[in-house]
Automatic annotation (TrEMBL):
Belongs to the TfdA dioxygenase family. This is TauD/TfdA dioxygenase family protein. Coiled coil: none annotated. It comes from the Bacteria. GO terms for molecular function: dioxygenase activity. Its cofactor is Fe(2+). It comes from Streptomyces vulcanius. Keywords: Dioxygenase, Iron, Metal-binding, Oxidoreductase.
Amino acid sequence: MIDSKALSPSLGVEFTGVTDPLDDAFVERAAEALKWRGVLLVRGLHLDDEQQLAFSRRLGEVVALRGQEIFPISINPEKSSSAKYLRGAFFWHLDGTSDDVPVKATTLTARHVATVGGGTEFATTYAAYENLPEKDRERYENLRVVHSFEASQRLVTPDPTDEELAAWRTQPTHEVALVWRRRDGRRSLVTGTTADHVVGMDPEESRAVLDELLDWTTQERFRYTHDWSLGDLVIWDNTGVLHRALPYDDSSERLLHRTTVVGDEAFG
């Protein structure tokens, strides 16, 4: 029998008793929980790559990144060719802020875990918006923000070389509304470390607004921290949940396998 319980007051559901993740009843419950609770956890499921892909495809079309539907997540360059850029994942972000339509959901399975550190934190931008004081809702309502890859990478490398800057700037910037008016009537916040500046605002004021909003969105009451165990499966709604990895040693064997599900709702 499949049971579920909340991971925190604001977000997350843990399912237990899952023996077949492709069972129609479970997939239906998972999709519904993903919409309303943002993060799903099944501990110790030990999916292999094909099983993870099969489950992901029940949620939607899977993105092939550089021809790979299964993408290794590691800061060890021997395990991932993107290890250098993945250091940006230590800071709060949404995936796909440079795209018109961000990715819908992400799944991770734990293949190796860090001895110390290496958890993943999540923060719900739905609850963050819903709990904003009315004066702040009015303040943010019509603001637009430019997102860039450079903004997030500057946190990793504050003093980049000309070559690094040139590489970052090959990635497109993207202007979106700070308050995303969702097609189901809800609203969420589009924030995170890719948020470069508020359109038309003085740079110093812009930075203050974005930092203040990120601090608000990621406060403890809107967060869930996942400590990985081998074989865990975690899925989250990338459109309404910020995430970040917690620090761990560069030499760690920590390795997560990721799939990414194509989005179906453009930024508002």
